[in-house]
Amino acid sequence: MEKKKIAIGVDLGGTNTVFGFVDREGNILGEGKLKTCEYDEIEVFVAALYEKIQVTGQKIGNGIEVVGYGIGAPMGNINKGTIEHAADLPWKGIVPLADLFNRHTDLPVIVTNDANAAAVGEMIYGGAKGMKNFVVITLGTGLGSGFVIDGKLVYGHDGFAGEIGHTAIRPGASNRDCGCGRKGCLETYVSATGLKRSLLKIMADSIQPSELRKYSFDELDSKIIYDAAKKGDYIANRAFTHTGRMLGFKLADVVAHTNPEAIFLFGGLANAEDLIFEPAKEYMEENLLHIYKGKVKLLKSELTTKNAAVLGASSLIWSIEESNS
Fold first, then answer.
1. Residues 94, 141 within the same domain
2. In whole angstroms, what is the distance from residue 159 CA to residue 137 CA?
3. Are 10 and 70 in contact (CB under 8 A)?
């Protein structure tokens, strides 16, 4: 009996790394994860990830044939197979991820930006099916973005086009430090960590009561803030409104640069839904040039029950398979 061909899709994030065994139709036959932040050495991380993938594959059974590994990572460079100066990962500088992975396997290993992988996943399996011009914004530990123009993913001259998370929302020396070494980057305001930083600033400047005052910085996370906001906590709701408005202001620039049919929000923070979407949509429309007003859809990813970045990363392998067939 012929074995079912499977691509491994890996979403390498600042907090967690998630992987899936994906067939050509986008079905995830098995998946797993490990904590990225627990590994100070990239070689140890790669070895642990590869081993966990193998263990998961054994549980699926003998009826599959893995044909390659697609990896989406912050600051992933598809041209070189590297991660380069990622602000939200434990490993600094240029990391030769594909080469390190190929110490464990002879199969193809492709590395790309995690948000680009999510954009491909949205285009092939999600809400962007049939769209030629759209943007995917990933809202996790940091903020990533993938741009599809005229049906093609935009990589730019050396693979790093579209890093809006590291464009300045508030340039100036008095603004928030970013892991990239600059100040005032969008992701320091619009991300899970940015939401927490905003909440603590609002809390410090306010005497309003809040159940969140009992938490330390390390204890707080976006889920706790979300739960409080849904219960009507004033400070939590202000933090979400502020975050959404910052995002909407920057999305107005994105529209001017790319003229997309839709912008998709993906990731944990997007699951806050109206708490993020309503202020983002309002502020985007308020700051749009007149010719764009009312034309751009702001949508939640349709791949919330799956992992868009895993699916998108796996699709890189299918593109190799098709070109070789």
1. no
2. 17
3. yes
Range of the domain at 295: 130-300
Counting the structural domains of the chain, the total is 2
User: What's the DSSP call for residue 151?
Assistant: T
**76-77: strand order across its sheet:** 76-77, 82-84, 94-95
| pLDDT band at 285; cut points 50, 70, 90 | very high
CA angle 240, 312, 69 (to 5 degrees): 125
- Alpha carbon of residue 207 to chain centroid: 35
Whether residues 106 and 200 fall in one domain = no
- pTM, 2 dp: 0.85
Residues 157 and 48 in one domain: no
Question: Could you tell me which residue, 140 or 320, shows the higher pLDDT?
Answer: 140
Residue 175: which pLDDT band, with cuts at 50, 70 and 90?
A: confident
pLDDT over 90 percentage in the chain: 69
Asked whether residue 111 falls in the same domain as residue 182, the answer is no
Q: What is the DSSP string of 154-178?
A: ---SSS-TT-GGGSBSS-STTS-B-
| Residues whose CB falls within 8 Å of the CB of residue 28, separated by 6 or more in sequence, listed in order | 20, 21, 22, 306, 307, 310, 311
Nearest to 112, CA basis, from 143, 78, 84: 78
Q: Please determine, for residue 281, whether its predicted confidence score (pLDDT) is greater than 90.
A: yes
Q: How far apart are CA 210 and CA 223, in angstroms?
A: 15
Q: What is the CATH number of the domain that holds 17?
A: 3.30.420.40
What's the rounded mean pLDDT across residues 275-302? Answer: 96
Alpha-carbon distance values, 208 to 164, 197, 202, 236 (Å): 34, 17, 10, 11
* Same domain (yes/no): 82, 148: no
Quick one: the chain helix, strand, coil %, rounded to 5?
40, 25, 35
Q: pLDDT tens across 81-133, in order?
A: 999 988 778 999 999 999 999 999 999 999 998 888 889 889 888 899 999 99
Task: Assess whether 155 and 46 both reside in one domain.
Answer: no
User: Quick one: which of 114, 147, 82 has its CA closest to 307?
Assistant: 114
- Of 180, 176, 194, the closest CA to residue 244 belongs to 194
